[in-house]
Amino acid sequence: MASFLLLLLFSFMSCPIFSSSAPLQTTKPYIVYMGSSWNDQKTEVGARIAESAHLHLLSSIIPSQKSERISLIHSYHHAFNGFSAMLTEDEASLLSDHPEVLCVFPNSVLQLHTTRSWDFLDAQSGIGSRLGYYQHHHSSHDVIIGIIDTGIWPESPSFNDDHMGQIPSRWKGVCMDGSDFKKSNCNRKLIGARYYNFPGSPRDISGHGTHTASTAAGLAVANASFYGLARGTARGGAPSARIASYNICSERAGCTADAMLKAIDDAIEDGVDVISISMGSDIQLGFLQDPVAIGAFHAEQMGVMVICSAGNDGPDAYTVSHTAPWILTVAASSIDRDFQSRVMLGNGRTIEGSAINFSNLTRSKMYPLALGENVASNNTLVSDARNCVPGSLDSKKASGKIIVCVTSNKTIWKEDRAYAAESVKARGLILVGENVEGYLYKAGSFPFTEVEKHAGYKIFNYIKSSKKPVATILPSVDVLGIRPSPVVASFSSRGPGNLTENILKPDIMAPGVHILAAIPPLSDEPGLPIGKKPSKFGIKSGTSMACPHVSGAAAFIKSVHPNWSTSMIRSALMTTATISNNMEKPLTNTSGYPASPHEAGVGEISPARALDPGLVFETTEEDYLNFLCYYGYSETKVKKMTKTKFKCPKGSSKELITSSINHPSISVGKLDQKHPAQIIRRKMTNVGSTNASYYSRVYASRGLTVNVSPKKISFNESKRKAWFRVLFDGRKAPKGYHFGYVMWSDGHHRARIVFAVNVH
């Protein structure tokens, strides 16, 4: 599905400020957030009462002569209270001042941000499958993953319910009928399916939701491939987990924020354990204007873990989405597999390229090779032809030739460049780019490949030195054992977070490049080879693909440790993440430089290690409420988000976020060189051996002084929890961000607390 553009901007801190000009008479959808739900809203009668109260509130601000507009789009009344409705700007402004309303903000459209990946993660753990992942693969505990996405294709073999037991009795969800979806499409694997944009269906017609669902919890399917590429057994991270699908998207409306909130509300009430969200806004929204942050906060209150993609706006800094501390935010990395399409030049040289094409070209026949600017159409800009801009190439000059173009104009999509060459009957296209990894264009039967800049120079030099340069482009093949791996994907959004630099974001990294998983077998899927039936599996890249890897891993841990809280699972994943690649060297980005925590979070997930972390950091609801106070929200607003008696701490400030939130990572947004050292406190819980002694060790960049106290902590039957302090002194450190970690080890377990410190 094409990416959806964000329609409306939001303010940074408070609810959106409405204009002071004459009120607009046109209506548009708004979300009215009223905080925590009432206790009696969870029954059927309570739900009707809540909807009636929402309608009554609407009637208080909509003029009586327009009573036909007193209707709800969605009513939220399970985990939190509120509704969405069509309002004018003036009506929205009136509602925002109502004492029962916490915030009113416009609806928005969100953007949609495997054979080998799970085996690769298991190998990277260093434990081995015998002691790690597979030992617990068929746990008897039922875990339910809610996938909020574009729906699901129920006929996929990844969602077969063979050998699965009865649906858990605690499940309260439904399987909704749709225009092309029946209740019978659900089974003991796919136990629930809802949709929110009417008319509509739970059925996935884009492939995004099916791909993410099968990555998280698809059954093992042997001999899966994309037309022979990536062949192997495709499986999800938690193959025995149940799936509940929530389709919040449609071709007409996109993926809307009000539907997102309703899906989260329903998923919590239905009984899911984990919610996986692979979409979000490119605009950094305030924590009480972001539908995902609002819904995830109340999910966390109810013991449901929410995992989200970081976004695909890298490699620029301050682009990461989903920065609330109660969300586990996932960056994307590569695995040790690539799809290569080689270029053979007439001088005998072979150039490595990356692509997915199923061309019929062979080594035995070469074709004329030409630069884009040398086959430009009349009256076109040379730069356009050099970049293969559609309409810039001349069919008489380009026909039958392999064209070489560059990607200096970043606004042109790969598929548009390929169309530009294919439409003038070129025999193939070679693109010369900066970073080739990431989004591989599926060229179908058209000979296409993309090469790195340094390899492109070899092609340019050959063309200049030859009177009749020729080449061929070979069809794609799998290449395994790529080193180094994993590498942070260039498209993966980076931190620090725009809203606050006192929480480290993204949290963690997982495979998100060239991931094979289930897709709908649709004939209009781009990139299909000529004459072939639609594939049941597809290859996709993005943080959207990384997110369900962590969702599956979280469900896997939940199945082994059913009594662990969401924060314990989050901590286990984060403190056991790996920070080295398959060359046993530090993780890097695509430029070859060491990857910082603002790129990779705490490192690459290691599900096998997370089963036995030794120590965990438990974060409470009070921690998160305090966070909102420290951030700057009023006590009145924060109190509406909880049923407990709560008061904001005195002297709340953003600087207190770092020390007062028991998070499994540390981020100091500002460490002043001229002031005394800053002390950060953390509380850890022993979940390993009853009697254990842990010793600390610090790894920090040169110049930054970091001391841990105490250096040794012993646990026993009566002592399961302990505090420690970390002192940061930047007086001798150069200005800017410094990274490192504190390692606690008892000789068997290693719990790593990554830190990012910005010295001013």
TrEMBL record:
Active-site residues annotated for this sequence: 149, 208, 544
Q: Which InterPro entries match?
A: Peptidase_S8/S53_dom, Peptidase_S8/S53_dom_sf, Peptidase_S8_Ser-AS, Peptidase_S8_subtilisin-rel, Peptidases_S8_3, S8pro/Inhibitor_I9, S8pro/Inhibitor_I9_sf, SBT
Q: Where is the Peptidase S8/S53 domain?
A: 141-603
Q: Where in the cell is it found?
A: Secreted
| Keyword Signal in record | yes
SUPFAM superfamilies reported in the protein's UniProt record: Protease propeptides/inhibitors, Subtilisin-like
Q: Which range is the signal sequence, renumbered to this chain? A: 1-21
Q: What is its main location?
A: secreted
Where do the Subtilisin-like protease fibronectin type-III domain residues begin and end? Answer: 661-757
**What keywords are annotated for this sequence in UniProt?**
Hydrolase, Protease, Secreted, Serine protease, Signal
Q: Does the keyword Signal apply?
A: yes
Inhibitor I9 domain location is 30-113
Family assignment from sequence similarity: Belongs to the peptidase S8 family.
Q: Which PANTHER family does its entry note?
A: PROPROTEIN CONVERTASE SUBTILISIN/KEXIN
User: What is the protein name for this chain?
Assistant: Peptidase S8/S53 domain-containing protein
Organism from which the protein derives: Hevea brasiliensis
**Classification of source organism:** Eukaryota, Viridiplantae, Streptophyta, Embryophyta, Tracheophyta
